[in-house]
Amino acid sequence: MIKLNKFNQLGFTMLELMISLFVGAFILAGVMFTYLGMKITTADTMDIGELQESGRLAMDVLKRDIELAGFWGNFTETPSAAVLTNASPTSPSPDCSEGTNNGTFPDTGAGSNSAFKVIYAKEAASGNELNCIGSPLAGSDILQIKRVLGQEVTGTTVTSNTYFTATPQTARFIRGTGAVINPGINAKVWEYTHNAYFVQDQTYTLNGKSVVVPTLRRMRLSNGQMRSETVMEGIENIRFVFGLDTNGDLRVDTYKTTAQMSAIDWDQQSAVVSSVQIFLLVRTLEEDRNNPATNQTFILGGEGDHKRVLTFNDGFRRKLLTSTVRLVNVGNDQWAI
């Protein structure tokens, strides 16, 4: 047995303690730097993933609706007062409309001589737009689409939504009553949809605080009224550029921005809208403290004086997505089922 006394009690010297503390602090600093780096990288990855996912989902919704604009099922023309076999249901109040023959249903009065507009766009200013959209984001486009859904509902019980019944030559719009619709001989039934897409600021509670987020929204025909709903948060601006076929060869001959499109272009008599370029600017919901404010410039289509150039100087991350959609229900290439 070893007897301990003040002469054989061993320990660390002050120098050894200082060296060990220094080495421990050095290792701890390395661990902290690694942790912080991984945290920043993870946050960056999540922000980028958020931008890509939000943009992809919003783009898919827009593309699907645009490419089927003017789809009327088994009806081989565009609905007009001349082919409708009875009066349309009462229009929504307020209706999303602007100009002649551009409401939910074809005009039967003075505007019935112009074509029923199945696709229409305008650049938002301020105040009320299309008589149904309050305070959209100024400088962003509004897009209006009319068509029937791809699945016919002949022989099934329907809701109180609006429906389109047609033969290849005649058609009518009716409101569902909760029962099976009898369309008549050689006729089919399709659910009718009228959508208007726009960007609008919305207030949300995020991480315990109130934040204002630009949001892609739409007015949608439901139960006889145009009702607002959110499509995707974080969509800061949208723009559409329209490809026109001016000679009937099913090829785009010229591109026009919303501001360049005329009433004749929307009527699609002398030229047909055969494709649409979509420009979608996506933004994170919150500023990134690890992303210092820098000048960001994005060009959302157009040429010369018709370019839409947006410049920002803040800590939000942004991504610009573009896509071109071919309309499959225009000109001589129209679908009919």
UniProtKB/TrEMBL annotation:
Superkingdom of this protein's organism: Bacteria
Listed GO biological process terms: type IV pilus assembly
Keyword Transmembrane helix annotated: yes
Keywords (A to Z) from UniProt: Membrane, Transmembrane, Transmembrane helix
Pfam families: N_methyl, PilW
Annotated InterPro entries: N_methyl_site, PilW
Stated name of the protein: Pilus assembly protein PilW
Coiled coil: none
Sequence intervals crossing the membrane: 12-36
